[in-house]
Write a structure and sequence with these properties.
There is one protein chain. It is built from three helices and 14 strands. The protein is α+β, with helices and mostly antiparallel strands and about 240 residues long. The chain has one domain: Jelly Rolls (Sandwich). The strands form two sheets. Strands 1, 2, 3, 4, 5, 6, 7, 8, 9, 10, 11 and 14 form a twelve-stranded antiparallel beta sheet that branches. Strands 12-13 form a two-stranded antiparallel sheet. A hairpin with a 7-residue loop joins strand 7 and strand 8. The longest helix has 11 residues. The chain is globular.
Length: about 240
């Protein structure tokens, strides 16, 4: 299948690491040709600038919705390449849900999926945190051709809420993916992206949330438009 004809859905680890909590990483979660096509057409528009401290962590990055929580289809499709619409459709499909259930070892009955696209420019970061309790698990897909850990921006699996208490550090390599199961010990962070980094850190986050909860980012307005409800966030014109 040629890259423009479809997208191989993101694979998940067959076995999760148990220390210091449940997490996984696949160096090739998306086939190389498809990952390269997604990288080439990575979205530029529809982003919001988030800079806040929520009492637990500091966050600074650009984010846009791909599939708001509980939605049945992608949004802002006028600014998406068709390959991204196909990726969204595959993440919303029953096969991806079944793959996640198999990786997690439990069912996702009633759980809803939210998918967002993230850009991390210079000084973007996400401090040590557990994820909010409404989250069940998150898979993060990465789209950087090259990445030097000296640039910051790697996902850190932490033993505690100490930024330097690092168990593993996962680079955002093209086509790779991480998976974190939310718990009371699932500390993780993304250290500040250095100004010498060769471009932005690029990722897609697919998060399962418990039934009946609300999105931490997005509100769907009357008429179908989407806004970011994070305080002090602002739309970005790129």
């Amino acid at each position: 299948m040629a890259p423009g004809d479809g997208v191989t859905r993101a694979r998940l680890p067959e076995v999760l690491n148990e220390e210091p909590y449940q997490w996984g990483y696949l160096r090739q979660a998306i086939e190389p040709d498809h990952a390269a096509e997604l990288r080439r057409t990575f979205p530029d528009d529809g982003f919001w600038d988030l800079r806040k401290h929520d009492g637990e962590k500091y966050m600074r990055f650009l984010v846009r919705p791909l599939v708001p929580l509980g939605a049945a289809r992608p949004v802002l499709t006028e600014s998406l390449d068709p390959v991204w619409e196909r990726l969204a459709s595959e993440l919303l499909g029953p096969a991806y849900r079944q793959d996640c259930e198999r990786a997690l070892g439990f069912g996702l009955d009633g759980a809803e999926l939210e998918v967002s696209v993230w850009r991390w420019g210079p000084d973007a970061e996400l401090g040590p945190h557990l994820d909010i309790p409404r989250k069940i698990a998150s898979q993060v897909l990465y789209f950087n051709d090259t990445w030097d850990p000296a640039w910051g921006g790697c996902l850190r699996i932490l033993r505690s809420n100490d930024e330097e208490d690092v168990f593993a550090e996962l680079p955002p390599a093209l086509g790779s993916a991480s998976l974190i199961v939310r718990s009371e010990s699932s500390w993780h962070s993304v250290p500040r992206v250095r100004r010498e980094a060769a471009g932005e850190r690029l990722s897609v986050v697919a998060t399962w949330q418990h039934p009946g909860t609300e999105s931490p980012f997005w509100t769907i307005e009357d008429g179908g438009s989407v806004r970011c409800h994070v305080p002090r966030s602002r739309p970005v014109n790129r």
